[in-house]
Design brief:
- With about 260 residues, the protein is an alpha/beta fold.
- About 45% of the residues lie in helices and about 20% in strands.
- α1 packs across α11, α2 packs across α3 and α5 packs antiparallel against α7.
- Bound molecules: D-malate (MLT).
Length: about 260
């Protein structure tokens, strides 16, 4: 069931379904909560699945300027408050959702039960990548999101997925096309300004699971292996045949891994 939840400075559209230990699913850029639909459909039989659209995305309200990863993480804590969830949650983020996950683990450690980080990075942007994001942030405000919707799927998905599951690509394109340029711009600027999370990894006390697509070119397996070596209690799964959108592309591998991890 989707609902509109008021938090300080924004109204978030949230899917909230099932009962049990809460799993907070946080989407990547420039997407919305629907990328978790396979996980929600399966895991909501045993868990409470909470999947918001971040501010600026999906059907949530838009904030202009720059939205930091820290702000998004604080939004997630405010969302849990608004839903009256006081017990610790499993945080499950993908890519930008993972950048938010590092901030959540640092700033709201008491709210965390376990951390699942999919296809993400701990290091900040190089100057070159940060500059490209600033160009993108400017460009979408001027020219709209059509070009991003056209170019992004080739970066997000494995070639095999593009060939064999074209409906996932179409769906993702539609999500991007319906996203506010202002929201995209604010998050791109926020990612460019994000902290170096490598400094916090050794302090993560919770059990963690890293999931990465075999063909992820944005946050490749070797980079996530490096993250695993820094987190004291951390499992690691490579999803065969998947790109950067592993949970969406190969849910049949990812869902059992999450179930095993949570049992
Ligand atoms: C994402 O999937 O959230 C983005 O690819 C993250 C990024 O551009 O660093």
């Amino acid at each position: 069931m989707q609902k509109q939840i008021q938090i300080p400075g924004a109204t978030l559209n949230v899917e909230d379904v099932g009962q049990g230990i809460p799993i907070l699913f946080v989407h990547g850029f420039p997407l919305d909560h629907s990328m978790w639909r396979f996980q929600i459909a399966d895991l909501s039989t045993d868990f409470r699945c909470i999947a918001p659209d971040l501010r600026g995305f999906g059907r949530s309200t838009v904030s202009d300027g720059l939205v930091t990863m820290r702000q998004f993480a604080d939004d997630m804590a405010a969302l849990l408050d608004a839903l009256d969830i006081t017990e610790p949650v499993v945080f499950c983020g993908l890519s930008m959702g993972g950048y938010i996950g590092w901030e959540f683990a640092r700033r709201h450690a008491e709210r965390l039960k376990a951390l699942i980080q999919c296809d993400t990075k701990a290091m900040p942007d190089s100057e070159q990548v940060a500059t490209a994001r600033r160009v993108l942030a400017h460009d979408v405000l001027r020219n709209g999101v059509a070009q991003l919707a056209e170019s992004m799927p080739a970066r997000l998905f494995a070639a095999e997925t593009i060939r064999t599951q074209p409906e996932l690509i179409d769906e993702t394109r539609k999500v991007i096309l319906s996203t506010s340029p202002i929201g995209i711009s604010a998050a791109a600027l926020g990612m460019a300004a994000r902290n170096d999370a490598r400094q916090w990894l050794a302090d993560i006390k919770h059990q963690a699971l890293l999931i990465v697509g075999e063909h992820d070119s944005i946050s490749p397996p070797v980079e996530m292996l490096e993250i695993q070596s820094q987190i004291p209690r951390c499992d690691y799964l490579v999803v065969s045949g998947a790109g950067h959108m592993a949970p969406f592309e190969k849910s049949s591998q990812v869902i059992p891994a999450i179930r095993r991890f949570l049992s």
